[in-house]
Write a structure and sequence with these properties.
The chain contains twelve helices and 13 strands. About 2% of the residues have low confidence. The chain folds into two domains: 77 residues, Helicase, Ruva Protein, domain 3, CATH 1.10.8; 198 residues, Rossmann fold, CATH 3.40.50. The longest helix is centred in the middle third of the chain and has 17 residues. The strands form four sheets. A seven-stranded mixed beta sheet has the order 7-6-5-8-11-13-12, sandwiched between helices. A two-stranded antiparallel sheet has the order 1-2. It is an alpha/beta fold and 301 residues long. Helix 1 crosses helix 2, helix 1 packs parallel to helix 4 and helix 6 packs parallel to helix 7.
């Protein structure tokens, strides 16, 4: 896989962009992929980290042979049912392009809003140093890296139980190192176990929150391709969230901020859980881009 921030390096072939687009379009058409030409452009521009119009504006440009082969391989993954982000090993998250594959969840727009909720709170609360932030279940590192590049934290510590996921997150940290305003440290272990020695002003997480008996309700692209350990949680989807709420309070300084992404169907249950814990005040539910109850936030009492 090529670095998403590198240019087209390698030998150029006689194949030009429009010819590759036509080849991919025909491949998709024969396999019944919807909107085959759009899919062809999405594959090529996704690999190159370019806007969709790039293929039209550069139609007569020669294409790197390695990029052409990568695009053909990505097309076969699309045909097999893979989400576009896995096929091209790229996902957009806020201002960043992240490397993603089947070791990590594909970052969602909802999680971008979770970052906004956190940043808005800290901008209104702190003037300069925001202290330490902890991201539980970091996956690709999306939340941790966004906070480190857009916020004024002194340090961001992120955990994940998957060594494979941490490998992806560390690669993304390397690619975005020049844009980070503070160190980002990754620790291996389940939920808050790796950070019990830390005191922080922020505890943020997008934990697994799908119940095991709900897996068949998920779209095939999620159910068959994304890592189940990052999706599914026991106790009707609430086990991981409950552990963070109850055990994470010990990590937060007085007035520290708890921010959780939750299943919109269970947001009120999580809010009640946070209030019942007795360690938090100012508990509220925030909405995602679709107006659904998606986030539960609170302050450490």
């Amino acid at each position: 896989m090529s670095d998403p921030h590198s240019g087209q390096a390698g030998s150029l072939s006689t194949l030009v962009v429009r010819e590759l687009i036509a080849e991919l379009t025909e491949t998709f058409k024969l396999k019944g992929v919807p909107e085959p030409r759009r899919a062809a452009h999405d594959v090529l521009t996704g690999i190159l980290d370019q806007p969709r119009s790039w293929g039209i504006r550069n139609a007569d440009n020669a294409i790197d042979v390695c990029v052409a082969e990568e695009a053909r391989n990505a097309a076969q993954m699309i045909i097999a049912g893979a989400p576009l982000s896995y096929a091209v090993n790229r996902a957009a998250f806020r201002h960043m392009t992240l490397s993603v594959d089947q070791r990590v969840l594909i970052p969602r727009p909802e999680t971008e809003v979770l970052v906004d909720v956190v940043l808005n709170h800290f901008r209104a609360t702190f003037r300069m140093d925001w202290g330490v932030a902890i991201d539980i279940g970091t996956g690709s590192g999306a939340i941790a890296l966004a906070l480190a590049s857009e916020g004024k934290f002194s340090r961001v510590i992120a955990t994940d139980s998957s060594l494979d996921a941490l490998a992806v997150a560390k690669a993304n940290r390397s690619w975005h190192s020049s844009s980070l305003n503070c160190p980002v440290e990754f620790r291996s272990g389940s939920l808050i176990n790796p950070v019990r020695d830390v005191k922080a002003n922020l505890l943020v997480s997008n934990p697994p929150y799908i119940a095991f008996d709900e897996i068949d309700q998920l779209p095939a692209g999620v159910r068959l391709w994304e890592p189940p350990t990052a999706l599914l949680s026991a106790s009707n989807g609430l086990a991981a969230t409950a552990a963070i709420v109850h055990e994470g309070a010990a990590l937060l300084n007085k007035g520290g901020f708890l921010a959780l992404e939750v299943d919109s169907r269970r947001a009120s249950l999580v809010a009640e859980m946070v209030m019942a814990a007795g360690s938090y005040i100012d508990v509220r539910v925030a909405l995602d881009l679709s107006g659904r109850e998606r986030f539960v936030v609170a302050s450490r009492a």
